[in-house]
């Protein structure tokens, strides 16, 4: 069984690196600021060659509508459009998302959940008939596979079927803990676009309020404030949701694959105890522990 584990490990390691690099590429490409110019300004008309104003026109030049539009940095424009409220919400959401991604990437790894050193040492104890030593090793180790094996060996005195049931319960508990931690990433991927939509509605309401409360036609710059808020909240919400959902899908698939491998390895290691408490048949030896 160990040879099967080693063969699967070698085949999966390269694939994991490929998936990880693909995820980083997708996340980077999803950054919404990548395709925007550093000075995004609403310049309807470039002040073409300045038309010389007649010097004798009195003070009418000051009211000229053709005055050049002031350019501003994109980040400044974004901060002004979002305001302190939306900036605080999206900054906190981004920080939590990055923390969850890093925590799950560090936790959902083969050398953490299914360490090769532990498997080799545990099998050596079994081969040497040192079953108590194997149990102590499994009980003192903090990995997924160790907890499953410790739960199974703790019930061997009641028979192999009871040991298999204990391994199943431990495996389901560990799997649920991993998926529960990962589910917060899916929650962020769902909530972020909803917050962006809320900001869109708020910004459009502000723009229409300008139109409704103005006795004359409002200036485009006044309407642009609400529209900017509407578009920026949507942009940032999607920019947070896309990498969150990408990493959620990748990590969920990795958890499922590792849980399956842990089940195969733990079943192979415990199958030598199939005769314990199962003298009437070998039906219990075919049950997968995870």
Structural class: mainly alpha
Q: Outline the low-pLDDT stretches.
A: 1-11, 21-65, 277-290
Please provide the count of β strands: 0
In sequence order, what are the helices and strands, one letter per element? HHHHHHHH
Number of domains as seen in the coordinates: 1
Radius of gyration: 31 Å
The description of the largest β-sheet is: none
Inertia-based shape: rod-shaped
Helix content: over 70%
Instruction: Measure the end-to-end span.
Output: 16 Å
Helices, by number, come to 8
The overall average pLDDT, rounded, is 75
Strand content: under 5%
Short description:
The chain is mainly α and 290 residues long. The protein contains eight helices and no strands.
Can you characterise this structure?
This protein has one domain (2-28, 74-275). It has eight helices and no strands. Helix content is 70%, strand content 0%. The chain has helices at 2-29, 74-107, 110-113, 116-127, 131-140, 144-154, 160-213, 220-270. It has 290 residues and is an all-alpha fold. Helix 6 crosses helix 7 (160-213) and helix 6 (144-154) crosses helix 8.
Write the layout of secondary structure elements.
Blueprint: H1 2-29, H2 74-107, H3 110-113, H4 116-127, H5 131-140, H6 144-154, H7 160-213, H8 220-270
Features:
8 helices; 290 residues; disordered C terminus; mainly alpha
